[in-house]
Amino acid sequence: MASATDVLLYEVGPRDGLQNEPERVPTPEKLSLIGRLATAGLRRIEVTSFVSPRWIPQLADAEAVAKEAPRRAGVRYSALVPNLQGYERFHATGLPVAALFVSASETHNRKNVNCSVAEAIERFRPVAERAKQDGVGLRAYVSTVCGCPYEGDVPVAQVADVVRRLLALGADEISLGDTIGVGHPRQVRALVAALAQEAPLEQLALHMHDTYGRAVANVEAGYEAGVRTFDASLGGLGGCPYAPGASGNVATEDLVDLFERQGLATGVDLAALVDTTAWLEDEVLRRALPGRVYRAKRGERRRAQERTTTVGEGA
Ligand code: HMG
Ligand code: MG
Q1: Active-site residue 148, yes or no?
Q2: 10 Å Cβ neighbour count for 240?
Q3: Does the beta carbon of 207 lie inside 6 Å of ligand 1?
Q4: CA nearest 55: which of 13, 115, 129?
Q5: Which of 61-67's residues contact partners 24+ apart within 8 Å by CB, and which partners?
Q6: Which residue is closest in CA terms to ligand 1's atom 40?
Q7: pLDDT, tens digit, 9 for 90 and up, residues 96-105
Q8: Crossing angle for the helix pair 252-261 and 215-224, nearest 10 degrees?
Q9: CB 271 within 8 A of CB 230
Q10: Judging by DSSP bridges, how do beta strands 76-80 and 97-103 pair with one another?
């Protein structure tokens, strides 16, 4: 939950973003990325996943990333954990927050973690017990809350049921994932209102993908409904390899700009974040990233640079 700031941005680029890249990013570049994000003011960063390297080869270096990510005061790192085997790997690295994940819809869950929703939650039981004993924080994602790539509409009651079961296991925070980016503001308002019956709003976060271009509108709707924690990826990176057609997360730059322009503090330095995304785009991924505010800021910089050059030439 936000303290010194009005909203808390939860950066998931190193995990949600890089899990979906066709090329595996080398470990030193991942560590630089995490350090730069922390320097830009992000205080919650999901750094990797302790899932099967056969399912997500892009994050096969999870141990090295989690152990070597630069520790900074006030910055908390998390990583995805699907089962007890993943938890053992996670815990050996000393990270403070484990992030469980399960879908609200059966078919996506099966495609993503190869078991039913009920089985996934049973797998979490010993993980949650261990996390409590070890003093590890527990975030829990519920995916496909606005729609499933295989089943279509997902009833709010089905989402609420999964949320209730995760809270009963002791989840500290629930992140509601519009995995395929089909949600709309009215749906988000209704979802948050329904889930506010299950958990205090401070325990809810929104995780919006931008496939249909409504992620920023959905975040704004979530803010108006009382949510204060929002997941995002620098430059709009991201996607779930087991959700066909899904595109990236809402871009972190878009949320920094959205909130700061409305007088709401995020604690994130937009210029430093744009520098980081530009570095990632130019030096690491070598492909254009879609974030709108990021693209606009790069355009402004280029035009300012051109004006300086023209003035210099004219002098
Ligand atoms: P499985 O194949 O059913 O696992 O996978 P299994 O228990 O039958 O074991 C098979 C093999 O995997 C064994 O190895 C295990 O040791 C190994 P073998 O004996 O064959 O050599 N194994 C593991 N290895 C390393 N770490 C582990 C682990 N567990 C088993 N933790 C499993 C089940 C859950 C592991 C697999 O399905 C998996 O890793 N899935 C991950 C999928 C994933 O990461 N998806 C993307 C993240 S979710 C997402 O993006 C959505 C989110 O962003 C929110 C939103 O947008 O809505 C969070
Ligand atoms: Mg996601």
Answers
A1: no
A2: 23
A3: yes
A4: 115
A5: 61/27, 61/30, 62/89, 62/90, 62/93, 63/89, 63/92, 63/93, 64/27, 65/14, 65/27, 65/30, 65/31, 65/34, 66/90, 66/93, 66/94, 66/95, 67/93, 67/94
A6: 113
A7: 999 999 999 9
A8: 50
A9: no
A10: parallel
Q: Is the dihedral of CA 244, 27, 235, 10 positive or negative?
A: positive
State if residue 204 touches ligand 1 by the CB under 6 angstroms criterion: no
Hey, which of 52, 142, 240 would you mutate to test ligand 1's pocket, going by the most ligand atoms within 8 Å of its Cβ?
52
Instruction: State whether the beta carbon of 55 lies less than 6 angstroms from ligand 1.
Output: yes
Q: Is 51 in the pocket of ligand 1 (CB under 6 A)?
A: yes
> What is the rounded end-to-end Cα distance, in angstroms, of the chain?
53
Q: Which atom of ligand 1 is nearest to the CA of 115?
A: 3
Residue 184 has pLDDT above 80, yes or no: yes
Mutate to test the pocket of ligand 1, among 11, 12, 16, 51 (most ligand atoms within 8 A of CB): 51
Per DSSP, the residues of 100-165 read EEEESSHHHHHHHHSS-HHHHHHHHHHHHHHHHHHT-EEEEEEE-SS-BTTTB---HHHHHHHHHH
| 182/305 Cα distance (integer angstroms) | 38
- Residue whose CA lies nearest to ligand 1 atom number 10: 52
Confirm whether pTM is higher than 0.90.
yes
Q: From the CB of 83, is ligand 1 less than 6 Å away?
A: yes
Q: For 245-288, what is each residue's pLDDT tens digit?
A: 889 999 999 999 999 999 999 999 999 999 999 999 999 999 99
Residue 173, classed as helix, strand or coil, is strand
- pLDDT for position 314: 62
Sign of the Cα pseudo-torsion (63, 68, 69, 71, in order): positive
Residue 142: nearest ligand to its CA? 1
